[in-house]
Design a protein that fits this description.
Structural class: alpha+beta
Number of strands: 4
Order of helices and strands: EHEEHHEH
Helix content: 10-25%
Distance between the termini: 24 Å
Number of helices: 4
Strand content: 35-45%
Length: about 90
Amino acid sequence: MVRLHLLDTGFCLASEHHMLQGGARRRVECHALVGLIEHPNQGYLLFDAGYAPRLLVATRGWPSGLYRAATPVRLARGLAVGVMLPRLGFAP
């Protein structure tokens, strides 16, 4: 049986009307999910890496700072994949 572990690494705030046709003019949370897929024969696959605290450093300057200004990111150090994987018994 294939198992999926979903890890939530934080979220950004984005305008719903920019994402959905007919969406409201309000900010919604867009969570950065990571999938740890466990296959009985093939082993594990980490799909995506989500957000990490270094995103805040990487988006300080131009032009990547535009992303951070348009979609403010909300992070908690304990939600980084590198912190969560050892809790599940894996080395990052």
